[in-house]
């Protein structure tokens, strides 16, 4: 096959790698993704772009519902010149009892990268174990790396830096909380997570993040009091109290999370310059009020747009 000599990403340190969780990246590699995304975003707005993956294909397998992830990957892959195969029904990927090994080894004969949203992180890891092509986690029960890359890009756009800022995450210690802790560890951003008792983020991940944070200087703390978390913070963030797959627990969670809503009163404890973020979909009136979602500090739609730019950059680098 003729070598694609026009690929500007050839030879980058992420070429051929996976992104199963953010700690798969070093601080320098996370910086490379964010800088690539910012550059591609600015150039796209000026009508400048490259299509380095002309003729290639990416499988996007969605075993949970999705709006943002599905559409942002589809558009990003198209802008790179590649074809996206979205598999979101029950009949096209891992649904007929075929082993993960067989499905992966067949799929990689057709496509050049696999993007997967599923329940267990171990499934993503197993796909990556068999695949010789890049595998990207598009959300599991444990992590959502693509979302947090987009969020880091958004914070830099609005606040000009990451290092030395403080993010306060208020709510469920879920996949988003776990991944923000990783994002902090990689970038020098302090992350405070406030949850009710029994809903703390994963302890093993926290320990790994704290080890990683030793090199970047970020402080990562888990606490109980939302006001303590938010006081003086630069970024206030929350997520649904009932993640996909937990729907039967909704009523209990509504009770358990009382006092953890991000509303104007809670926002008043943050810095005057603080921004509000939410990965969406939001449950307005539960974890956050309309007033905060629609207020002047909210950057939720920029954050959603940046899914496209962050993932396009990530694929640009991994697929090289
Ligand atoms: N934030 C996010 O991942 O949205 P979707 O579930 O709509 O993909
Ligand atoms: N914590 C949420 C994130 C959705 C993007 C979930 O897993 O459903």
Short description:
Helix content is 42%, strand content 13%. The protein has helices at residues 27-45, 68-79, 100-110, 121-130, 145-159, 175-187, 203-216, 226-230, 250-256, 264-267, 290-293, 300-318; strands at 57-62, 83-87, 113-117, 135-137, 166-170, 190-194, 220-223, 235-238, 275-278. The protein has 320 residues and is of the alpha/beta class.
Q: Distance between termini?
A: 15 Å
The CATH C-level class name of the largest domain: Alpha Beta
Helix content: 40-55%
CATH superfamily of the largest domain: Aspartate/ornithine carbamoyltransferase
Give the strand tally. 9
Arithmetic mean of pLDDT? 96
Low-confidence stretches: none
Strand order of the largest sheet: 7-6-5-8-9
Major sheet, described briefly?
5 strands, parallel
Query: What would you report as the Rg, rounded to the nearest angstrom?
Result: 19 Å
Structural summary, described in words:
With 320 residues, this protein is an alpha/beta fold. The protein is built from twelve helices and nine strands. The chain has two domains: 17-34 and 48-142, Aspartate/ornithine carbamoyltransferase (Rossmann fold, 3-Layer(aba) Sandwich); 145-303, Rossmann fold. Helix content is 42%, strand content 13%. The chain has a five-stranded parallel sheet with strand order 7-6-5-8-9. The radius of gyration is 19 Å and the shape is globular. The protein binds phosphoric acid mono(formamide)ester and norvaline (NVA). Residues 66-69, 139, 147, 279-281 line the site of phosphoric acid mono(formamide)ester.
